[in-house]
Amino acid sequence: MPDYELEQLQINEGYTMVAGIDEAGRGPLAGPVSAAAVILPPGFTHPLLDDSKKLTEKRRELLYTELTEREDVIWGHSYAEVDEIESINILHATHAAMVRATLSLKPAPDFCLIDGLPVKNFPIKSDGIVKGDGKSLSIAAASIIAKVSRDRLMVQYAEKYPEYGFERHKGYGTKLHLDALRAHGPCPIHRRTFAPIAQLLQ
């Protein structure tokens, strides 16, 4: 289970506002990538908070509500939409969304723990934490906000484009999704530069 140790190490170094940052939706064939940044109160503990991928949808929803409604939790969120992903590629779009989510935090963090590899030219001093959503409570909280925000949006897209089943697979390349793509072709929220769709369009 993640804990507050990585955050505390930075606080011991003199930083006062340590944010955790994570994303959801780098792999899907449709929809935006979602990024969140979270500053938890000092010494934060939680018996159920974990990497969003290890939790049920119901548990994620409950934790999302708890985190976003707590007055002592500072959080920000941003999407990189499909046109941005197509324009600058998924990695750069993910990093851009992370930066926007982080810069929206008030007060601003003075150190960031980012899930994954270090992000070059990040505007605030930061460190990359591989599999950080399973180690840092701040990153785990960010993973939940990023994931739930994106899942809710994909359910809304399912109402607009019902033939693709977005409410079920959230844009990932499942058999159901690939079959729908072959039957109907891509819609406006599909990532046309991603291999399965690019091949289909050829």
UniProtKB/TrEMBL annotation:
Positions of the RNase H type-2 domain: 16-202
Domain of life: Bacteria
Catalytic activity, reaction form: Endonucleolytic cleavage to 5'-phosphomonoester
Binding site for a divalent metal cation: D22, E23, D115
Keyword entries, A-Z: Cytoplasm, Endonuclease, Hydrolase, Manganese, Metal-binding, Nuclease
Chief location of this protein within or outside the cell: cytoplasm
Note on cofactor: Manganese or magnesium. Binds 1 divalent metal ion per monomer in the absence of substrate. May bind a second metal ion after substrate binding.
Cofactor(s) listed in the protein's UniProt record: Mg(2+); Mn(2+)
Name the record gives this protein: Ribonuclease HII
Known EC number: 3.1.26.4
BP-aspect Gene Ontology terms: DNA replication, removal of RNA primer; mismatch repair
HAMAP family: RNase_HII_B (MF_00052_B)
Family (UniProt): Belongs to the RNase HII family.
Function: Endonuclease that specifically degrades the RNA of RNA-DNA hybrids.
CC annotations in GO: cytoplasm; ribonuclease H2 complex
A single MF term (Gene Ontology): manganese ion binding
Keyword Zinc-finger among record annotations: no
Primary enzyme class: hydrolase
Location in or out of the cell: Cytoplasm
